[in-house]
Specification:
Family: Belongs to the ABC transporter superfamily.
Protein name: ABC transporter ATP-binding protein
Strand content: 15-25%
CATH class of one domain: Alpha Beta
CATH superfamily of one domain: P-loop containing nucleotide triphosphate hydrolases
Number of strands: 10
GO cellular component, one term: plasma membrane
Bound molecules: adenosine-5'-triphosphate
Pfam families: ABC_tran (PF00005)
Structural class: alpha/beta
InterPro entries: AAA+_ATPase, ABC_transporter-like_ATP-bd, ABC_transporter-like_CS, ABC_transpr_LolD-like, MacB-like_ATP-bd, P-loop_NTPase
Oligomer: single chain
Length: about 240
């Protein structure tokens, strides 16, 4: 399916997979306000790979949540494939997320009772794709990520690096416009982290998927097309 086909609407023509326009975010509690992001602008093209680094508490996870439409900015707007999250209700957001976005976290969040292939098939099942097709697509992407010999293994029998590759395969199997990754190699040893990171960025580029990664690891960040530092609410 064309990944620019919006859930239930016409295709959107846009030069950018993902855009942030003047995005600010302030959290409030009863008597305090914390401004985490201050007029952040960002535009990521299809197939482009960018890294966001920054000190603990600088707002990296907050920004990723806004990019994924999981939270709303206090000001400004975030667009995925030319569609602003702010113009969608919850149901449309979740359909658009399933269709146009993949997410990878530090912990793989694979379902332990399902095999690698079944885990990767999950987003396709949610879309009600025929099982045979979903099986073939999951197999193909796992093979491309070097896991052809692990299709029928459950996560408990896989290494940490293999689990993260499966998580990446699950994020990419729908051919999304963009993958958002939050410390995807944070749990791996150095050598495995490098291998997994290379596999992720190469796959994203090969499929024309934009890849936005938050990482503490400057060496890995420098393997992307652009590195941003989040500091005092600004993306520098
Ligand atoms: N839901 C929330 N309510 C109130 N404050 C929040 C909320 N979410 C985040 N914050 C605050 O926003 C700031 C940035 O947090 P965030 O988790 O985005 O930082 P981070 O750069 O991802 O940190 P780390 O690298 O430690 O994960 C912190 O001061 C945090 O306390």
């Amino acid at each position: 399916m064309n990944n620019l086909l919006a859930a239930g609407s016409a295709p959107v023509a846009t030069a950018f997979a993902l855009e942030c326009r003047g995005v600010s975010k302030t959290f409030h509690d009863t008597n305090q306000a914390v401004q985490v992001l201050n007029r952040v602008d960002l535009a990521v093209k299809p197939g482009e790979r960018i890294a966001i680094v920054g000190a603990s508490g600088s707002g990296k996870s907050t920004l990723l949540h806004l990019l994924g439409g999981l939270d709303s900015p206090s000001h400004g707007e975030v667009l995925l494939g030319g569609r602003a999250w702010g113009n969608m209700n919850e149901r449309t957001r979740s359909q658009w997320r399933n269709q146009a976005l993949g997410m990878v976290y530090q912990f793989h969040h694979l379902l332990p009772e399902f095999t690698a292939q079944e885990n990767v098939m999950m987003p396709l099942r949610i879309r009600r794709e025929p099982d045979g097709l979903a099986q073939a697509q999951a197999q193909a992407i796992l093979e491309q990520l070097g896991l052809g010999h692990r299709l029928h293994h459950r996560p408990g029998l896989l290494s940490g690096g293999e689990r993260q590759r499966v998580a990446m395969a699950r994020a990419l199997v729908t051919r999304p416009l963009c993958v958002l990754a939050d410390e995807p190699t944070g749990n791996l040893d150095r050598e495995t982290a490098q291998d997994v990171f290379a596999a992720m960025t190469q796959m994203a580029q090969a499929t024309g998927t934009a890849f936005v990664v938050v990482t503490h690891d400057m060496e890995l960040a420098q393997r992307t097309d652009r590195v941003y530092r989040l500091q005092q609410g600004a993306l520098l």
